[in-house]
Fold this protein.
Amino acid sequence: MKYRGLIATGCALALAGCSSNAELPQRADGVTDVVATTSILADMAKNVAGDRARVTSLVPAGADPHSYEPSLRDVRAVANADVVLANHLLLEDQSVMNTVNEASLDTAHVVKVAETAERYGASLIPLVEDVTLDTPWLGARVIGDIPAGERAVDLVFTDVSGPGDMSAFLTGTFGQPQPYVNTADGLDSRDLIRLPPNAHTHMSWSFTKPGRYEATVEARVGDRVVAHDVVRFAVGVEPGEASIREGHVDVAADLEANQVGVRTDDGKLVHDVIEVPARALQNIPNEPAYRFMGRPGTEVYILPQAVLGKHVHGEIDPHAWHDMRNAKAYVQVIRDELMSADPAGAEEYRRNAQDYLNRIDAVDAQVTHTIYEIPRERRQLVTTHDGYAYLGKAYELNVAGFVSPNPAVEPSARDVVALTRTLEGLKVPAVFLEPSEASRPGTLKEIADQLGVRVCTIHGDTLGPDVPTYLDLMTTNANELKECLS
């Protein structure tokens, strides 16, 4: 093992007392040692281990696992561990994972908890759905056949009301847009999307101002109107309960049912409002081909065309513990790994785990009740970094915005503008900073101060003095959300 020489040197020169500290992992006393990369994993492991096993956290409470650099003390801890628990999914800094992989014994149980938890019922969220796209994909579709002699169905936009202009266009392979609908020059018989029967196309949609839009759409076969209805959009404002926030949907004509509506992924035709979030804000390109949208550099809200929008498979959000159902799967993973490493303690681990699972259930019910007391239209979560998709999904919070995807990415000028529009458009009453961010200047604090928005605290990747346990973290976050958003 490559770190053995460093361990001896570190103990002799830099870590006085490290070899005699009974709280650190060691092989001489026969105690089962569990090393967890984060304080949250360590707390879960302590609840399962009880007094039978010794649990150590590599990343100390209050430190960020995304950027933590392991010490020689951490190398020694891993080298003496019987079980090593890592969240993985790129949560921990690569240097932490290198330490885990290179310093652990061949006999140690090295567990990637988040990935393993899927087998225990955990539900992991692909980042592609909640970050990279972060808007619905809205196309156009015709369902059903047409009479003999007819060749196509026209989806004609006869009226569009709203605070600004709307356009629908298709972007070709080489990036050239082809407008189909554009209200800036008035609507006429050319503002239509023409499709063969049972056909579908991807589209891009733009809106020049925030607010609510209603588009009246007629489905025409030749000169005959077979159906018509209104398609609704909420642009940069809260859409309400019956809304479409993500997924692949189409403005659709169902010729068999004689209806126009929005077709969802499951094949249903609905009349829900399509959300165009404030973070969809972009600047009109300088190329002349985009002049139909407005003046170059002007801000517009864009629902991107599916086939050309950012679409990255395989990127998984690692912050799964913010959904307490996932936390239960974590606990079951830890239980089974401890039982495997120390079979003689199996019954104790099983009993401790069940007691902890029961307490998680109780706190989950409490957290749900607390957050559900926040009026739905005010459940808007804006944070510094994108680490709360699981919290939003589990407890019906809308993750309305964040400064950057992770602490390592600096926000662009567009990110700052989009976040400002989010706070203005949704009338967000408070933004949330993690404790490490609250004490120093930052983009979110500056925007909040400019708009008179309250700044509150949220705990994400680590425990600390205010939240010494995982259950405290979840309860404290729920109470803070209720206090600041209600």
Remarks:
- The radius of gyration is 27 Å.
- The first helix runs from residue 4 to 13.
- Residues 356 and 383 are 30 Å apart (CA to CA).
